[in-house]
Amino acid sequence: MAGIYPLTLTDLARAVGEPALLGRGLQAWDAGHAALLAARLLEAPHRLKLAPDVPLDRVAIALARTLSELRRAEVDPARLDTAADAGATPEDRERLRALAGLYRGFHERIEGHFADHATLFRAAREHLAEARWLEGAEILVADDLELDAVERRLLAALAARFPVRRIRRVRPPAIAASGFAGWAAVNAIREVEWKETELAALAPSPSAAALQRVKARLFEPPSGPADRDDSVDLLTAPGEAAEVRGIVRALLREAARGVPFEDMAVILPRAPEYAPLFTDLLARLGIPCRLHPSLPLRFGRTARSLLLLLRCRGLRRAEVMELLTFAPIPFAEMLGEDVTPRPAQWDAMSRDIGIVSGLDRWIVGLRGQAETDREEAARENDPERAARRRRRAADADALLRIVELLSGTLDALSGEASWPEWSARLRGVVDQWLGRERDREAVGDVVADLGGLAFLGARAPWREVERVLEARFEWERLPLDSLATGAIHVGVMDALAGLPFRVVAIPGLVEGGYPGVLRPDPFLLDAERQGLGAPTAAPEPAPRSPAAAPGGARGRAGAHRAAHGPGPAARRAARVPARDRPGRGAPDPFLSPRRRAHGARADAFALLRGRGRRARGPVPGGRRPRADRARRRPRRHAARPHPRPLGA
């Protein structure tokens, strides 16, 4: 064996496809381009019916997502015309024809001009024969993959040319039939054991019985005796904050047993609610944690501060004071070392003066206040009161100086300019207004990338620049914190997939809370997407099976969910990924064929019943005690994990 190359499928596509694309003169592609093209298509004449009060910026972001997915599925614009002709109602046909016109413009602007995702994978597929470095290679797929259409075609082309195998792993029957495993079996990608590969030495040790049951029957109705061991623990809590405290206590107990923090993970199915709770509690306890880049960059302090600054156009008092109280503004550089910034006093003063908006109102109000306070201080006999008056006048002067600087900054961010000039102006704004934060470098990279959009036009209006900036902050991710020691890993399933852990906790598995709320495509129905070969709508963020999330995990598994247990419809939503739900091409995994034929609904995985006590394994029969059924308030459960493998 000459060597082992650990590559993602995208890495392999770049290695094969990029040499073939170098001589074509194609431009680089990034996430902001799709939103920019969608915005320009909406500004031009189109047939899409939009209400007059609908903000085009938000429509452009949603449209960019739809058009990008159609492009990644290699959908020809003519197929959308055919789908429009076959629409079920006149409204559907009109909507699809409007989308077809927009997609045709999107496709024509990209094809032959940009090296986007679809172009890269198509080039890799077409030039496999020229990749001499792959001669004699064997390809091993170490885990189940989530692939779009162009990625699957590249993997199928690899399987037709090279020996491609995949490692056998335990998975629920519903996932095995409808997920990557089912597709791989149809495309002759053989499944093998760890011991049959060159990675046999890395094979995980066998899982405990309860953990093995979770991995094999997660989406199945309960049956058979309960497996009672300590590989899976279930806990309840009366709310999110108490739930987080219970998980942290369990992690500290594991640390006392000798498990390093680096081998612990908290997987967040609902990151917006739980990420702040975990990071705040762990920081107050002095426990190092590593928040994986699962949140959009717009949640970072620097990015959010820049967006707040841009919202201050018009100098409305509420927006200005929100910026001054939240953003890491270097006041010492703006006002001088001898001036003490007092945002709380600035807020109260501007409110008492009656400032609403507009630079003129700020100038008149603050100058008048400063003059009045100085006159009163001169007439005041009490030294302390005179000092307070002078301090209040100094506060008015400092606030006026800040507002005037802010007004000048916003004036510079208006009109038209070239993309490199916009990039330079925004770089100056970041340097002047925002101090050092952990996302400062990532924001600087986004601003610098704007200079590379000059090929879209010699000049661009500011509104277009702002649209691209907001889209990039939505799609880019927060960087990881730099830590010198081991830390507890906190992040969503996709961010932690493939990392090995001995202890895993999963909070937030409660009725109506996990998976996240579906974000249906406003332009394409799921049936239309399936007919075109595009992926159907999925929760945000798209979850993975808890048993499969950390691909190489080797520890205990944790899970939290409601003590009452969700209702039948919510249980199906909480347990089955969007692509495997009934009505999306897969049968209901909770029902036997006989009960499914009669339209019956089955209970799913009733885990814990009681007031915060632990339970090990499912309750036999899937029924909860009468007292628990009568309890009104839902409670959450947490699962504590076991030092045996969670599986690859």
Low-confidence stretches: 538-648
Spatial gap, N to C terminus = 24 Å
Query: What's the number of structural domains?
Result: 3
Q: Level of helix content? A: 40-55%
Task: Using the CA coordinates, give the radius of gyration.
Answer: 29 Å
Shape: globular
Q: Can you count the helices?
A: 26
Q: What spatial order of strands do you see in the largest sheet?
A: 6-9-5-10
Question: Could you tell me the mean pLDDT?
Answer: 79
Largest sheet: 4 strands, parallel
The secondary-structure class comes to alpha/beta
Query: β content, as a range?
Result: 5-15%
Number of strands: 12
Tell me about this structure.
The protein is α/β, with parallel strands linked by helices and 648 residues long. It folds into 3 domains: 27-114; 232-295 and 484-638; 301-458, no CATH class. Helix content is 47%, strand content 6%. It has 26 helices and 12 strands. The strands form 4 sheets. The chain has a 4-stranded parallel sheet with strand order 6-9-5-10. It has a 3-stranded parallel sheet with strand order 1-2-3, with no helix packed on it. Helix 7 links the parallel strand 1 and strand 2 (164-167). The chain is globular and about 90 Å long.
